[in-house]
Amino acid sequence: MTLRKGKTKQTLESSINSTLLAVEVYNKPRTPFRVENYISLMIMAWTRLFHAHFNNTIGDKYYYKNKKGTRYRIIDGEKKAWDLKKCISEYGILDKSIEANLIFFIKLRNKIEHRHIEKEDVGIDIFGECQALLYNYEKILVELFGEKWAINENLAHSLQFSTKQTKEQEIARKKALSKEVKSITEFIKKYRSRLDEEVFNSQEFSVKLIQIPKILNNPKDNVPSIEFVNWSRLNEEDKKDYKKVTALIKDRVREVISPGKLKPGDVIEKVNKEVPIEFNQYDHTCLWYLFSIRPSKSKEEKSEFETNTNYCNYDEVHDDYVYRESWVDFIINLIDNGEITKETWKRKYKQNEKLKISNYR
């Protein structure tokens, strides 16, 4: 489509420039607020894309009106244009997976508007959705205005320099994550879990890339050692082969918190079924403290994440601790073997003593 100089062309070019800037920002790992800026710029790009389309099809009428519908709403002397959600509704023919991806980012943008989520934990978690947001943009851009306006830009996943962290850095990172982006990560999980399978598995909602290592005959050849395979471009035979691999790594976040973990009451119930003594909540508290399974807020200054992960994990969503079956087995064996009595663990707990769990396993 050839556009003459005017508002449609100007708005479309502004949309494309916003997209290019979003990609540039995303691909600079040291840019402050990288993920937030990418989302905000892409929301702006999508909004202006629809404004260009509406201006081209219905004219300069994509503005909110007053309750009576007789006049346009004016803010700071300007007519209030439709936001992206309104544009989606008025357009009315978006693929449901593309719409789900856009609504996801509209809601996420609203959540991060007054906070920052530059933490890589969140950025990596939504990489697939970020990539789909870009792919979908170009797809709709071409559908509305033709191949001439295609961008042909790629949003590349940045490789990390190092995965090594000191124990102190890891604790600090987790504490920051739990305080700053806890509600955001929970929103992401819930949004994904409520999608139907067709939408969730679509490339339009979240791009699924399979990373395949290449074996080079000549390592000096100027050929990448890995390649990313786009699922939607595979034939049926190749998809069957890749499914054997992806079945092992498929990651669907469901609205299930700490699967396979036990609450304190569950631990007590299981232990009482197997031991000859009565085992209660106080007994359980004594043992996890004596063996340093988890920190005690009242007795020691430690991060809530400093648990013995062989037996216990901190559940940041519910701000409590969950236990493993291995902890139940340890307690049962401890009592059955008579290695420590109930009276002894109560006394040692009152005296704030500690025991090495390796001496009792």
Strand order of the largest sheet: 1-2
Instruction: Label the structural class.
Output: mainly alpha
Measured distance between first and last alpha carbons? 74 Å
- The overall average pLDDT, rounded, is 79
Domain module tally: 3
Helical percentage? 40-55%
Would you identify the regions where 5 or more consecutive residues have pLDDT less than 50? Answer: 159-166, 246-257
- Choose one word for the global shape: elongated
Largest sheet: 2 strands, antiparallel
Order of helices and strands: HHEEHHHHHHHEEHHHEEHH
Global Rg: 27 Å
Oligomer: single chain
Task: Please describe the topology of this protein.
Elements: H1 7-26, H2 34-57, E1 74-75, E2 78-79, H3 84-91, H4 96-112, H5 120-125, H6 127-145, H7 167-180, H8 182-193, H9 197-200, E3 209-213, E4 226-230, H10 236-249, H11 264-272, H12 281-290, E5 312-315, E6 320-323, H13 325-336, H14 342-350
Antiparallel strand pairs: 1-2, 3-4, 5-6
Helix pairs in contact: 1-2, 2-3, 2-4, 2-6, 4-8, 11-13, 12-14
Question: Which features does this protein show?
Answer:
3 domains; 6% strand; 361 residues; two-stranded antiparallel sheet; 6 strands; mainly alpha; elongated
Structure described in brief:
The protein has 14 helices and 6 strands. The strands form 3 sheets. A two-stranded antiparallel sheet has the order 1-2. The protein has a two-stranded antiparallel ribbon with strand order 3-4. Strands 5-6 form a two-stranded antiparallel ribbon.
